[in-house]
Amino acid sequence: MTQDAPKNGQIIVERLGAVLRLTMDNSGKKNAISREMYLQMVEALDSTAEDHSIRAVWLRGADGVFSSGNDVNGFNAPKGEEPAPVQFVRSLINYPKPIVAQVEGLAVGIGVTLLLHCDIIYAADDTKFRMPFVNLGVVPEAGSSYLLPRLMGAPRAAELILLGRVFGAAEAHELGLISRVLPQAEVADAAEQAVTALSKQPLRAMMKSRALLRDVSGEALTERVAEEFRQFFEGLQGPEFAEAARAFMEKREPDFSKIAV
Ligand code: COA
Q1: Given this model, what pLDDT does residue 72 score?
Q2: Which CATH number is 59's domain given?
Q3: Contacts of residue 20, Cβ cutoff 8 Å, sequence gap at least 6
Q4: Quick one: CA dihedral 163, 164, 166, 167, positive or negative?
Q5: Ligand 1: which atom is nearest the Cα of residue 106?
Q6: Is 0.85 surpassed by the pTM of this model?
Q7: Sign of the Cα pseudo-torsion (156, 157, 158, 161, in order)
Q8: Is any ligand 1 atom within 6 A of the Cβ of residue 21?
């Protein structure tokens, strides 16, 4: 983390010519995404959605780690505020220009599911991926329960979600989750080349193509995202999440055996 970075982490927002680079920087927590960080990404995305001096987005994590997902201790939204992850996923889905993700080290939770809304995803060959939603006593979010089975088939999606097991970059590639696997030393260059090339493409055709590839008009995805987040936040109030969060803080295995449904 940069020396003067705030306690809850930050998003380093840079304009590099026609490219908007967003760096998730909360390295004391493996770039866990705090409410503040979600809201900074929402602001950066929403304020450039119609500003066509920006033609592509480059998303990465600081210090060779993509993200450990939602800050496990930071799920609570101030009263009356729409939860920050909900705002973030909407901004990502609605963003009209291409998003390139540079994935290294770890991608966990929403650090994986957000990739479903990026366009070109390059991952270092030693990246570890994991979606431990069930393990935390919650359900998958960000449209992943809708998109993952369509991407890789229901049995493979179920294995990753219900077990919440770790998988590597080669498997992520085979499952269609990422565009390419690269040696660690080459990922940043590849991402830079992609955003540079994208920023030279004709913008109208590129935006129309992104929309067609993603079928953003589909209401089914929007409805599923809303239902997932409803169940996700309901889960956060329950005893299964309480035990998972306690176990995480106490650095032990959770014990769900005595929790009634
Ligand atoms: N939220 C808050 N803090 C987190 C975090 C998260 N998502 N992920 C990691 N951290 C913190 C750890 O608590 C630890 O803090 P400490 O140094 O004060 O003890 C620090 O970051 C380093 O993590 P550590 O677990 O020691 O590193 P690791 O390399 O052994 O494991 C992870 C990294 C990401 C695999 C592991 O930390 C993990 O499983 N984190 C939780 C991920 C998660 O459940 N995300 C939410 C999904 S909804």
Answers
A1: 86
A2: 3.90.226.10
A3: 13, 14, 44, 48, 54, 56, 57, 58
A4: positive
A5: 34
A6: yes
A7: positive
A8: no
